[in-house]
Amino acid sequence: MKLFTLIILILTLNSYAEDSKLKTEALNNINFMTEDYPPFNYSQNGKVTGFGTDIIVKVFNELNLKKNAENIMILPWARSYRKVQKVGKRNALFLMGRTTQRENLFKWVGPVPGNKYAIVTYRGGPKVKGIEDLKGEKVVSIRKDIGGHALIDAGFPKDNLMEVSKVKQLFSLIKKKRFKFFSYGLVGLKEKMKTSGFYMEDFKVAFIFKESDLYYAFNKSIEDKTVKKYQKGLNKVMSDEKFLKELKEKYKKKNIYIPL
Asked: Per the CB 3.0–4.6 Å rule, which of 77, 84, 97, 258 could disulfide with 146?
């Protein structure tokens, strides 16, 4: 009887160990992608950084995963947005605004503090106070970016949205007055303009139309259990006041504002 009990115990422990190994492999086996969008995520000296990256790397540590910032790829937003939706692919993309149009396309982990989305015009441009004042106007946005998606959700006609693939095009079209308005997030906008050869002084914020939290978007093929583990890890990280304080100080020293 004792021998039988011992055998059952060994088999149970082996099964538990194997199950634990499979769960860890599932957590590790996810390809994380982001875009160059400081201060959320960007490349510095060949390394991926930004406070969105710092948070997910902290989650990796909480889950005891063999992953770090070197396992994160920076890609153009439109390309990574397509890749994260490919059926059967274990891809995740961050940070993403959660909109009506996107809700059923992904499995979501979040939120983390997000962005304010605004209509921006050139210096001395038209005075508008709300979506209704844009009637008959074209507004430029980045393809597949929340700046455009959120604008449509707010009631702006989809046919009047002009999408471009690069942020430099966004700024150039407005500064040259080929279009009057673009839609984009305000956090990091100044830095984005500077790296693209533009200056905030040449533009003005017409009005803010949405404030949004941000999320880590997972391919729908990834198991619910795996996504829930990441959510649990994120909850722990976001309740760690010491970590959040250190994160805020890190970027404050760089004279970079982050929404914490």
From this structure: 97
pTM (2 decimals)?
Answer: 0.77
Taking the C-alpha atoms of residue 132 and residue 27, their distance in angstroms, rounded to an integer, is: 46
Q: Which amino acid is at 111?
A: P
**Domain range list for the chain:** 31-112+213-253, 115-212
**Element containing residue 226 per DSSP (H, E):** helix 224-238
Specify whether domain 115-212 bears CATH 3.40.190.10: yes
Neighbours of 9 (CB within 10 A): 10
Rounded Cα distance between 6 and 46, Å, is: 54
pLDDT tens-digit map of 145-164 = 999 999 999 999 999 999 99
Q: Phi-psi region for residue 137, left (φ > 0), alpha (ψ -120 to 50) or beta?
A: beta
CA distance 106 to 30: 14
Q: Which tokens go with 256?
A: 């970079």
